[in-house]
Structures are given as structure tokens and as C-alpha cells.
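Hi everyone,

Forwarding the result from last night's run.
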Amino acid sequence: MKAYLRLFALASLVTALLSAGLIGLYFRSQVGTSLQALAAARQADQTQFFTEVLWQKYGAALQHGDALPAFRQEATGFMQRFSLAAARLYTPQGLLLWGTGGTLSAEQFARAPAQGAVLLSASEAGVPEVNPGATLLRGVLPVAPPGQPPQAYLELYSDLSPQWHKLALQQWIASGGVMMVFIVLIWMLVITSRKAEVIIARQHEANVELAAAAAAAQAENQEKSLFLANVSHELRTPLNAIIGFSEIIKDQMLGEIKNTAYQGYITDIYNSGVHLLALINDILDFSKAASGKLELEVEEVNATKMVANCLRLVSPRAENGNVELINAMPKDPFVLETDAKKFKQIMLNLLSNAVKFTPATGRVRVSGWRDLTDDAFMFEVADTGIGIAPKDIAKAMAPFGQVDNALSRKYEGTGLGLPLTRKFVEALGGKFSIKSELNAGTVITFSLPRVFRAKEGITVKPAAS
């Protein structure tokens, strides 16, 4: 990691140097071009001034070869006024009329206006009175009154050295600024990377510890599930005997019970035993599902008919609680491959839960539809009961979890109904979802595939005929 950071920092530094150089050159090129164009435009204005003022006044005399001191004096003032390094005036044939330096041929003059302005050093331009290293802009422009051909050519030299020095300084400032930005970014990146490396190392150690803790917790949970399964299995044998004998006594199969108090007691024993057996069965089923030892008997099931049977089974409890049961399943049968017992247990758990937590005059509604997209059947159990606050849904779905509020506290149960139901739905290849609002009811939706596909860890055995 550290070697990678050093390599990256070196590559970034080289990139910064190249970028700063390229940006500097681009800046110098763009600004230099603008500076040259501005100077060339000024030379055009200066030539126009020369034509309108000096040439109109002295041009005829100069063309006849007269040497006019007055023109020379005004021409020198012209140079000083416009801060020109040098200026020369030629005839179209290349004869020098005024200024310093050599002469240009007529052919060169013919090309000069098309060439435009050219950057030269003072030594290249042959201007000895200026610093040899100075940057000059030479422009050869025609002296032509309006509507007339060129009558002379004016060669102007503008000293751009001050502006060029400022441009070089700005170039260094721009390049240096880019370099500073890159250096600061690289420095921040290195510091951040080092901090990130420390955080990653700590996170790795924490992940290792968490993985070990999770493995230990999982092993402990499996041991607890196995213990619950074994204990539940051992409890069922004596409990079945208690239920069986209490039922014989309750129904007075071997003789009449004359004491009415005993009749009430034996009924309570029987009902408590049945309730306890149901709780133990829930714990046993959940333990098997959690430990991956769930067994399924898959067969073709008419879900529509089974829903109706489940509604009949919970109807006595619904009538006692004055809760209305509504069967909104389609008339066409829903036929699918699934475990009939598990499907019945799913539906009974949801219906019993809905009836239990729905106050008097409330409603419990069962509906279903076909999902063509996933080739599955959807089932929905909706009630108008006490509901669950959205923040408490996760707690209600946790094993042995019960929402602690005044309404739910009075209802008995292990808290395994919903978690166990979800386990069964997922084992059958479906999906489970719950929506609820406090005092507004609960809607539970689950899907089951039309064609069963066994999942890993699920044992499938032939259905009993």
C-alpha cells in the first residue's frame, strides 16, 4: 500500500509538472497571440494617422525627391508619440525615404502587406538603437490615401518587451499556481490515504472479531435450537398423555363426575394442555426451520379450497369475538405444488393472529390473485385490528419478539407466529411482506410459486397417500 502511494505521488508530481508546463505554454501562446494582434491593430491605426497627417502634408514633396527637414522633425515626433522603436518609409520601388537601416526590394514590398506583423529581435531587425534582446513587432503597411493605390510603405517596429516580460511573469505565476494546487492535492491525498489505511486496518481487525463473534453466536443459536427441539420433543410425550386422559375424564367416558367443581377443573386442565401443546409445536417447528432440518411433503394443492377450510376452523373464535370473516378469494381454484400441511399452518397462523388482535365488530379479509410475472399465486390477509407501529414491525418479526404495548400485552403467545409463518413461506419458495399502522390494522401478503423448486437445506419427501 505504501509503495503504491509513493508511486502514485511520483506519477502525480510528474503529471503536475507536465500540466503546469503545458498550461503555461498555452497561456503564453493565447495571450501572446492577443498581444501581437493588439499591437498589429495599433500599427494599422498609426499608419492611418501617418497617412492622413504627415503623408497628406509632405507626400508629394517626398515623391519628387525633396528632403524636407520639417518632415523629418515631425516624423521623429511621430515615433516618439507612439513609442516606436524604429520607423522607415519606402517608395513602392524600395527606396528609403526616411528612417534607418537597409532597403527592401519591390518584390518584398509586394508581399509585405499580406505577411502581416512579424515578431523579431532587435538584432534580427537591424535596429541597433534598441537592446538586441528586445522583442519587436515589425509591420510593413501601405501608405494609401482613400481610393488610391499604395504611394509608399511604412515599416514600423513596436517594442513589446515590457508587455512580454509581464506575460512571462504571468506565465510563471499560472504555472506555479497549478503546481501548488497539485502539490496540495497530492499532500492531502497522501495524508487521507494514510488515515484510510489505518482505518481499513482497524476495520479489518474489527471484521475479523465480528466474524468470530458471529460464528460463535451462530453455533450457540444452533445449539439452542437443537436444545429447544429436543426439549419440545420430550415434552410432547407426557403432554399428550395429560391431554388424552383429561379428555377422557372431561367427556366422562368411564363414569359420571358428580362434583361440578371437578368438571370445571378437568376442562381447564384439558384446555391448558391443548394450548401448551400448540406452543410446543410452534417452538419445535421453528427450531427445525432455524436449524435447516425442515421436511416438506410437496403435492398438488387446491389453495382456494384450503383457504375456505381454514376460515371454517377459525370461525368459532371469530364468532366469539364478534369479528367478521370475509372470503374474497376468486372462484377459479388456485392449484399449485406445495406442502399442504405447511400451507394450512401458514393460513391458520395468519387468520388466528388477525382474529386475535382484531377488536369486536372488526373484519378479517382473505384475498388472492395470480402473479403472471413470477408465475406465482399471491395471498393477502388484512384485518382492522390494533395494528403495529412501523418502527415495531422488525421486533414483531423477530423470534420470540412481542411488541410491548397496552393492547398486545393482554394477548397470550410465544411471539413465534409471524416469524414461523415467514420461515414456512420462504421454505416453500415464496416471499413474505407485512404492512401495518397502529390502530389501523395489518396487511400481510405472501406469494407461493405455482411450480415448487426445492431450496438448498430443505428436505423434500413424497406426500403420504
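The chain has a mean pLDDT of 78.

Cheers,
N.
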